[in-house]
Amino acid sequence: MTDQNLAAASPLPLGDPALLAALADAALKAGAVILRIRKEGIGTRYKADESPVTAADLAAEEILRAELARILPGVPVIAEEAVSQGRGETPAETFLLVDPLDGTREFVGASGEFTVNIALVTAGTPSLGVIYAPAVGKLYAGGSFASGEARAFRAARAAGVPSAPESWEPIRCRPIPDHGLVAVASRSHLDPDTQELLASLDIAERISCGSALKFGLVAEGRADIYPRLSTVCEWDVGAGHALVRAAGGSVRRPDGNPLPYGRTEAEYRVPAFIAYGAQG
Ligand SMILES: Nc1ncnc2c1ncn2[C@@H]1O[C@H](COP(=O)(O)O)[C@@H](OP(=O)(O)O)[C@H]1O
Ligand SMILES: [Mg+2]
Fold first, then answer.
1. Hey, whose CA ends up nearest to atom 5 of ligand 1?
2. Most exposed: 68, 74, 109, 138, by fewest CB within 10 Å?
3. Would residue 266 count as lying in a domain?
4. Listed residues 146, 170, 194: the one ending a domain
């Protein structure tokens, strides 16, 4: 029996680091589908909230649903496109958050700053997260494991090619400096409140970036803070939250309280959050 068959026959325990690699492989497969559709030409339509959805979002979500059902059978999947079509599953103690194509605006434009995001949420907190940007070949993965260890990684990966975790490079947030912060913020959805907060901070450099790649910059110590004081959804944040936590940082509500997850009644909306590098 091959390793892949073995994994299919016996689902991995939730705290097993091999689960992170399996989720990364699912993201790499979805990334391959996204790049193929991008090459063929993008068919864009607009959802009720006027955000764009493409054939790539839908195809990537379909492949992720199949992969995740194989990797974690029976674990509910809360995925952006299913929820927007009223077909969302119900979150349980353990559930998955999936954004099949985060940064659709960047995808529809020329930028390669779009990602596949997968988060495993356990007991209300994102414990594993994978962010894969197929057009720029960047994979981020991180989480906390049953051993009590938390680890975060990055890797340069081609879409569709299975990932060897041995080749992943460990990453850490950098300690937030007292002066001259590096801040990262949305390229396409920068709101006035976030701009005001940024203006109030001692910032040496500001990076604009699309999608969950912003969390990768915090996790690898390239940025100290990623504030977002306008609404996003749990699938935009969960994977990055797990990654940044595993790298020694944090993601919280602006008042410092924990971010809640699995809020079906709020349609999974996250009104605001701030991601920080390593504090004190
Ligand atoms: N008003 C709003 N309500 C909910 N989510 C929003 C939003 N405005 C932006 N977003 C989310 O922010 C994501 C883009 O983030 P960024 O600006 O950092 O690239 C979008 O992801 P999708 O592209 O997956 O729809 C979208 O879900
Ligand atoms: Mg998104």
1. 232
2. 74
3. yes
4. 170
